[in-house]
Amino acid sequence: MSQTPPPELASLRQSIDNIDAALVHLLAERFKFTQQVGVLKAATGLPASDPDREAVQVARLRALAEQSHLDPAFAEKFLNFIVAEVIHHHESIATGSVATRASEVDES
């Protein structure tokens, strides 16, 4: 027998859905800038990865996570996932094997 969920559950879920939508939009904006970085790196012969910058970003994000009462290890995993994707895009841009917009995906 299933119980009827309390009305506030729908409200909480709507708030979560709104935040998820905002995260997707923010990630899209972030990738627009990282694509531009990839084009600039390719044009100037810079490597796709910048370990020094990545280390600074990890430390910064971990500190922000702690301040926000979010598990810093989770924040680091999240950033590492994003950075790995960015590096992949930068490598693809450098070799000319991908479009320069993150929003362009293969629809097949």
UniProtKB/TrEMBL annotation:
<dbReference type="Pfam" id="PF01817">
    <property type="entry name" value="CM_2"/>
</dbReference>
<dbReference type="InterPro" id="IPR010951">
    <property type="entry name" value="CM_bact"/>
</dbReference>
<feature type="domain" description="Chorismate mutase">
    <location>
        <begin position="3"/>
        <end position="94"/>
    </location>
</feature>
<dbReference type="InterPro" id="IPR036979">
    <property type="entry name" value="CM_dom_sf"/>
</dbReference>
<dbReference type="InterPro" id="IPR036263">
    <property type="entry name" value="Chorismate_II_sf"/>
</dbReference>
<dbReference type="InterPro" id="IPR051331">
    <property type="entry name" value="Chorismate_mutase-related"/>
</dbReference>
<dbReference type="InterPro" id="IPR002701">
    <property type="entry name" value="CM_II_prokaryot"/>
</dbReference>
<dbReference type="GO" id="GO:0004106">
    <property type="term" value="F:chorismate mutase activity"/>
</dbReference>
<keyword id="KW-0413">Isomerase</keyword>
<protein>
    <submittedName>
        <fullName>Chorismate mutase</fullName>
        <ecNumber>5.4.99.5</ecNumber>
    </submittedName>
</protein>
